[in-house]
Amino acid sequence: MLSKKNFVCLAAVLLIMAMMFCSCTKRDGDEKPSPKPQRAELSVEKQDFGTTADGEAVELYTLTNSNGLKAKIMTYGGILVSLEAPDRNGKLADVVLGYETLDGYVRNNPYFGAIVGRYANRIANGEFTLDGTKYSLAKNNGENHLHGGIKGFDKVVWTAEPFKEEDAAGLKLTYLSKDGEEGYPGNLACSVTYTLTNDNGLKISFDAQTDKATVVNLSHHSYFNLAGQGDGNILGHRLMINADRFTPVDAGLIPTGELRSVKGTPMDFTQPFAIGARIDEDDEQLKYGGGYDHNWVLNKTPAASLLRSKTAGALAVRVYEPTSGRVMEVYTTEPGVQFYAGNFLDGSITGKDNKIYKHRYGFCLEPQHFPDSPNKPNFPSVVLRPGQRYTHITVYKFSVR
Ligand code: GLA
User: Fold this and answer.
1) How far apart are CA 345 and CA 230, in angstroms?
2) Of the chain's two ends, which shows fewer C-beta atoms within 10 Å, N or C?
């Protein structure tokens, strides 16, 4: 027990320390941010974010971790609206592209920040056969089906349940996709849980169960720019993908079925390379994608049980942005990752802070099963049957160098 005298001394020391801390932060001012982001209170806050054309109310949740990182997620499309992460001086910036209001997303969203499903990426001719029955899906990408169809999971309103853990703030989103939706068989009960952890990870856990055999492939579609959203193109980011092979595509971006070595090609990111270093090379695969828009076959597929608690030893991708010092690492239970270099961005979208999103101003890393797997028997299966549980965990983790 402290004596009264000792207690008074301790209180005085603490007070002096607090005053010194305050005067330091004041003296540094806004121009020279303190080297570490300020400690913040772990929190989840809710606000209204408007209504859809169908009159459905949309909510926006702000998750804040103890280091001051903030993730804003809305119930429309399960969209990550903003994500603030510190640079090497501790200065926070929003590192994902998007709109300021719901209206922008509803009007024209090239999947900024969205949950994509029931099948992320492409299914050739919008068709597949399962247990002898042929299913026809909505075609929304030329002749092909892309990211779940005309009204995919990126355009539905999810039900939200916020939560706090000792070292994380989170949001659980649920959605029931009805039998026949966009042509898919089976009622699919889905949940997507975003957890912003105190080790600066944004963990996304996907779960699904069905009452009829179906195909499932859920992913997350943020466009990242680690220099800050809208602040230049992403060509200077240095990228490492832990993958010796990729799935080459045809002119419609449908995989041929081959798993091809990246060795000696511009697809080789086994060692870090600037995204822009080879993107415009005279290479057939790059021509088809207008740049990188391909699925890499990851060398490691860690178990969900590992990624639930820690990420050690399971690195899939690392991206480093030299001017800000920001590093993003991706860990996933999925066998593949689509790396898309924002080739379709063309300056026609004005996003948050009135920033114009020009060619290659953002890149996506979409952990997933391989595109067109329902039609490729040699690819890992995407079939989900009654009684089984689909699980996918991806962590986007932020640090600085
Ligand atoms: C995915 C696809 C791209 C493109 C974007 C959205 O990443 O692979 O071809 O459709 O989504 O514009």
Assistant:
1) 12
2) N
